[in-house]
Amino acid sequence: SEVLTAGSSIFFLYAARTGYVTLVNALVSTHPFFLLLFTVLLSVYRPDILKEELGRGQAVRKLLAIAAIFIGALLIT
Questions:
Q1: What is the mean pLDDT of residues 33-48?
Q2: Would you say 34 and 46 are in contact if contact means Cβ atoms under 8 Å apart?
Q3: Residue ranges with strand state E in 1-77
Q4: What is the pTM of this model?
Q5: Whole-angstrom distance, CA of residue 14 vs CA of residue 3
Q6: What is the spatial distance between Cα 39 and Cα 45, in angstroms, rounded to a whole number?
Q7: What was the pLDDT predicted at 77?
Q8: How far is it, in rounded angstroms, from Cα 5 to Cα 54?
Q9: Distance of CA 22 to the CA centre of its chain
Q10: Which of 55, 75, 4 is nearest to 34 (CA)?
Q11: What is the pLDDT of residues 64-73, one digit of tens each?
Q12: What's the pLDDT score for residue 1?
């Protein structure tokens, strides 16, 4: 975990140095999207790891949450 955090911090600082800082910060704010996407895929393909039942209503709410994350990131940019 610490190695991944250090690596992502280095990439973030490099991206902020070479690109637009507001765009880089907006892209960093999509981190919850990737976490949510990973957990949804994990619960679909490996339900034995996460003890979560993914029904149609929950899947729709998670997709709406993903859309809200991207809309928020676009509004920040």
A1: 79
A2: no
A3: none
A4: 0.50
A5: 17
A6: 10
A7: 66
A8: 29
A9: 17
A10: 4
A11: 887 887 787 7
A12: 67
